[in-house]
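Much of our argument rests on the idea that a fold can be written as discrete symbols. Part of our work consisted of pairing the sequence of a single chain with a tokenised description of its backbone. No coordinates are needed to read the tokens, only the vocabulary itself. The record that follows shows the chain in one-letter code together with its fold in token form.
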Amino acid sequence: MKHFLLAAAAALALTACAAQPAAAPAPPSMPGMASMTPPPPPVVTNSTANAVAVKEFAFTPAATTVKVGTTVTWTNQDQDAHTVTSTGSGGPLRSPTLQTGQSYQYTFSTPGTFGYLCTIHPFMTATVTVTP
């Protein structure tokens, strides 16, 4: 009888183990949906507009294309002062120091590519291409 009771107890223990609920399955993965964060807006590097913002220590856009006779306006939107000055000698761009909110305008009368920088922050560079 002792063997019978031991066998019954073992069978009961096995039944109890088998009755345990299984672990919940992992949620399905969605390839390509790793992040729901939208991408940042594209950086404008070339424009046919005649307005250039001076902000975040950069000229935006960094490259502008206009026709002869177009007036381009640079507006300082930074808290620091900046200039708009032709690179090299003899270039046409020579703004005064622009404080926050101040603008500088220049009307391009000849075709060509005109590089410029901020003399206060020489790492700030950009170009204006003037077409006929």
In short: The chain has one helix and nine strands. The beta strands are 46-47, 51-55, 58-60, 63-67, 71-76, 85-86, 103-107, 112-117, 125-131. The first helix runs from residue 2 to 18.
